[in-house]
Task: structure prediction
Amino acid sequence: MPEFGAEEHETTTMETGAFCLARCSCGWSGPARRARSRARTDADGHHTQVRESIALREFNTPSPPTHCPDH
Result:
């Protein structure tokens, strides 16, 4: 799955018969649900997961080394 920034994740819900599911522009899709509200909750959960993943990646990215002049 390609990496996207949080702002590039656009979720929608779609209905197929008696079921509704959430989908995202990144290719993610949630499980089929009978309740639209549950599909929307799945989409919200996906956004939260993406934001947390980006924040963790930024936190774990090492800072560039600082130059220490010779004494």
